[in-house]
Design a protein that fits this description.
With 694 residues, the chain is of the alpha+beta class. It is built from 17 helices and 35 strands. The strands form 8 sheets. An 8-stranded antiparallel beta sheet has the order 16-15-21-12-13-20-17-18. Strands 2-3-1-4-5-9-6 form a 7-stranded mixed beta sheet, sandwiched between helices. Strands 27, 32, 33, 34 and 35 form a 5-stranded antiparallel beta sheet that branches. Helix 7 crosses helix 9 and helix 13 crosses helix 14. The chain starts with 5 loop residues before the first helix and ends with a helix.
Length: 694
Amino acid sequence: MTVATSSAKAAIAANVPDPESIRVLCLCGHSGSGKTTLCERLLYDAGVVTRMGDVEHGTTFSDHTPEERQHKHSLQPSFLHFDHEGHHVCVIDTPGMADFIGHTIACFPAVESVVVVIDATKGIESETRRLMRIATQRNLPRMILVNKIDAPDVDLGKLTERIRNTFGQVCLPINMPSPDCERVVDVFETDAHDATAFGSAEEAHTQIVEQVVEVDEGLMAEYLEVGAEGLDPARVHDAFEQALREGHLVPIVYASASSGAGIANLLHVTASLLPSPLEGNPRPFVRGDRPMSTEFDADKPTVAHVFRVTTEPHLGKLGVFRVHQGTVRARSEMYIDGQRKPLRVGHVMRLQGKEHVETDSIGPGEIGAVSKLEDIHFDGVLHDGATPEDPPHIRPLPLPKPMYSLAVELKSHSDETKFSTAIQRLQEEDPCFVMQRIAATKQTVLRGLGELHLRVILEKLQSQHGIELETSPPKIAYKETITTAAEGHCRHKKQTGGAGQFGEVYLRVAPLPDDHPTGFEFENKTVGGAIPRQFMPAIEKGVRQALDEGAIAGYPVCGVRVEVYDGKHHDVDSKEIAFITAGKKAFIDAVGKAQPVLLEPFAAVEVVAPLQHVGDITSDLSTRRGRVSDSLVSDQTCVVRAVAPLAELREYATQLRSLTGGAGAFTMDYSHDEPAPRQTQDEVVAAYRANGEH
């Protein structure tokens, strides 16, 4: 933590910007596109820093954690702000690697604009497509920034054409590089006649103006009558922002973060053309099931969305929030979601990279942070309790599900207590990281978005908490089921000299449909009091124990209907424990006769890669017992959708990188279960019996 001077604190505390002057944008894009260097350049040109930092040497303002300096990549969002042309600009620098995409998506509700950065030397990459798609789904205005325009052998004209073919003809340049790419030519606000690296500035000006005026019928009619020069600039500006909000326009701008080409124009575009909080699209807040609107008004009841939680060495738990209504003040009381107990807000801060500057209040439209509030959590909504019976919430984010797994064991069992606390902290900070105890395999499994994601988690556990783990590939979480009806029986009799145990159970099992809501049914079909009713819950308990522990291979049993149709009891020796045991063993007996099978999990996979690799991808998926369901081609990119066994996808990320030269990416999610190959079933069952577990 960098300690700010008293004068700096006083200046910032007194400077609560007007929402109309605020611009909040998320800088995102594929890894290596130059986002962090771009942030350094923006801070430098805005006068915040006197010297630009360097990613390679770990001296940038954004990448300030030890892990980021070690890996030379952004691993978490960083918050930067500066003033330009009378506007207060907040930029969120986000990670570009697929393993950390959850952090990027989590920032989307906190911004008015998403700026997607494309490396001119590499073109449209997999995460570029993914982020554009998600930003579109979230109804956020988008701008495309082509970086590294002065790199040698770059065809910016072809790249621009490819961008428009991929993301739609609504993508239009609002500035264009000069022939030497040392500056850019504005083609929107001025009717430029300068030479450009490709195309015509005059044609580009006409195209962008015609696109903008289409959203306003009156303005369109006026344009047809008097031309672009006769239009009121204020009305054109309003139409530009409306086109952004409606997705009718996605501006393309050009720059070079390393040389500074186009940065002055980028700063101007950000301040003058991107929407303010008052002009952005509504956020998905709700009260109950009803949509709720918010106003960026300091005097309204406070509504602030917590979109990031982290832990700082000297500050403890830190909640980063965006104020959508009202004001968050230091030394005040606030509520989170529907909790009845208020939170005591002690310290309120503005963030500037690793620096935290205390302030008295964070106003509407701003991003701020509060520390040392244990009850604060990701995606929570802070409010002043004005509507205690109907608190505001925000619709959940469609975050990617963690599918990459590692089984872990503590190297030292003395770390058991602090391990639970450390994992809880990391899960609070990262919505795409989970830890599970898999009863079917008796393993503790960490799940993340990729190998690097979990490697960074393991590094944090060691460096921040002193915890070391042994890792191994997790076992596959099979399930057991039956394919036909059968009957089972157990007579449990135990005599130990005193009171004995006696219970006898006859039952039937039958398979349930795959879409059964619970996968289990239990029914008492006995007649004539063969088994007294008070013992029926004990039989069901025994059956459920077998469901959890497995009947043939130690994995959970699903898709089974059980009917108890007969049995016997003893007036003295029949007890609950006797019928638990008899029910469990009778069920196992029946399952063994009902042609049991092992089910393995299948995942739905979507692969995005350059078109030339489509044959290799489909062939590789086939060797993994995958079935391709769809293959889409767009420009030079293919999207392959398939289902495949999870067991065959353990190392798929590595294989896909090899097949596509690092240009491919994939997502996967649980799809359904299918019977495992007979050889696999026989091996798993044999291993279970060889261990004496049955």
